[in-house]
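Hi R.,

Here's the chain you asked about this morning:
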Amino acid sequence: MESRSDPSEEGKRRRRSGRGVAAPSKPIPDILSRVKDRYNDLRPAERRVADTVLADVGFCVDASNADIARQAGVSEPTVTRFCRAIGCEGVRDFKVKLAQSVVVGQLYLQTGPRPLPAENGSPLWNVVFGEARNALDAVERQLDPALVVGAAEMIAAAHQVAVFGLGGSSTSLASETQNRLFRYGVVVSAQSDPYAMLMMASTLKPNDVVIAISATGRTRELVEAVELARHYGAHVIAITAPDTDLTRACDIALTAEVPEYPDALKPTASRFAFLAIIDLVSVAVGYRLDPSARETLRRIKYNVLNHRKGRVLEPLGD
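And the predicted structure, written out as tokens:
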């Protein structure tokens, strides 16, 4: 009779074949959250190292073990123990993970007091209204009106329009695009789930149009959906940053380069710019479809006002 396999060998075979044992999850390299989560479990000296790291992430990425120890007022072995206490193999492993977090970490770890707005609204007014003005100025300077007209012509002639926006403000911007276009009688739907985007892209035909919105133009799932839509013959309009993977995968790129003010608590500046582009394209579609767009808007407004029994004329475009 054949003897039973050793359990450890059986486990190895299962792991190799992918059956019976779940694959180990990929570790999340957010070392800053690990420092914060394990802070209360650290020894007092190790907490001083943690305080030093959280106070100046950039310094700790470039500093030597001795520099970190000196800044924290501890010994070098304490720095090593701190690194191991938060799950790293040692100082080198810790600094590699820390470097991955440094770009975002410095912006979001700033905890200095922010003054409430004065009677004239500053600095709050300056941050929000200033960002909005700068974004609108950037669109007005950079956007080619001929591309807007071309995009409007493409949308007006489409059998249907699919709007793709994934994550962050792009999801709400996709919804806003749908909200602007359906009023003119355009058959339009917005998708923000990556699988729904792929499924929608698979159904498109040469007389359909995709409007893809992305602040970075590098979102892999969005670019893949756009490439799939083009494979099936659909046209693609991108609202995004210049010179990106998305611009290279589309027919018309409506782009604006909008610098971000380094304040993590204020709205993303590109959102203002993209809203302006959406409005420009939408109005151009309305002009192109006039008078049918005007009749559709009249029906919408008539039935909304009739439903509310109001006498005051509400905003015409909504």
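The radius of gyration is 27 Å.

Let me know if you need anything else.
M.
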